[in-house]
Amino acid sequence: MVEIPRDHPRYESLMIREKIVKGVELGITSPQGMIAHGRGETFDYLIGEKTIEPAIRSTRAALAMLLLAERPVLSVNGNVAVLVPDELVKLGKMLNAPLEVNIFHRTEERMRRIKEYLEEHGAEEVLGMKGDATIPGISSVRARVDREGIYSADVVLVPLEDGDRCKALVDMGKKVIAIDLNPLSRTSQTATVSIVDNVVRVIPNMIEMLPQMERKPKSELELFLAWFDNRKNLNDVLKYISNRITNMEWLVDKE
């Protein structure tokens, strides 16, 4: 990785980029994943590269949904694997939810490398290699999933997801939690709960919030979900971005 001074004003952002570049070199992340990251980074700028209040609300809703789930599964692609491997493994263990590798540019070699990379970071159960079931309504290879994993899950966490697969999972009757920096994407608009935030902040936030959420009775978790309105939450994100753009003073900090 390129040495980046810690006092560089774009240090955190540049480090994320370097991790994805490293992922490409390791055969984990696809070159197309670098483009996808660039799109997301644009929206991260717009929200100030921080976790805003609507994201906190949706993260809590997501945790409530995962805690109430009978068969939760955490979906993993190349970008997610290189950006938050330790955190994702820890979250999976805390929720007793398996990780399942699912990628758009699928080759058996990439699948194996992502699986082994997660295992190097402590994962004990990584699904996805079987691909013995198919999500209906998708023509891409992302339709291939493990029958004992995503296919049978009732709740699926899908960081950095494709919109068509998100919709297909919802159409199957699953509750889908998306992590997507673009509040206007098909993924955000289709998911049951959409967390508009950077995955490098979301997964650590989930780990931090989970112990407190676990102590809440089931009835309180159900009430929280009944109260949560994903559409309104997305609108709140758009209002935040609009207000921030209107107030041009924030640009001074980036000069």
A few lines on this structure:
The protein is an alpha/beta fold and 255 residues long. It is 53% helix and 11% strand. The chain has a single domain (53-240), classed as Phosphopantoate/pantothenate synthetase (Rossmann fold), CATH 3.40.50.
How many discrete domains?
1
**What's the total count of β strands?**
8
Q: Rough shape?
A: globular
Q: What is the CATH superfamily classification?
A: Phosphopantoate/pantothenate synthetase
Sheet with the most strands, sense and barrel status: 6 strands, parallel
Low-confidence stretches: none
Order of helices and strands: HHHEHHEHEEEEHEHEHHH
Portion in beta strands: 5-15%
Please name the CATH topology. Answer: Rossmann fold
Q: Calculate the mean pLDDT score and round it.
A: 89
> Taking strands numbered 1, 2, ... along the chain, how are they ordered across the largest sheet?
3-2-1-6-7-8
Rg = 18 Å
Q: Which CATH-level-2 architecture?
A: 3-Layer(aba) Sandwich
Beginning-to-end CA distance, first to last residue: 26 Å
Output the structural class: alpha/beta
Report on the structure:
This protein has 255 residues and is α/β, with parallel strands linked by helices. It has one domain: 3-Layer(aba) Sandwich (Rossmann fold). The chain is 53% helix and 11% strand. It contains 11 helices and 8 strands. The strands form 2 sheets. Strands 3-2-1-6-7-8 form a 6-stranded parallel sheet, with helices on both faces. A two-stranded antiparallel ribbon has the order 4-5. Strand 7, helix 8 and strand 8 form a beta-alpha-beta unit. Helix 3 runs antiparallel to helix 11 and helix 5 runs parallel beside helix 9.
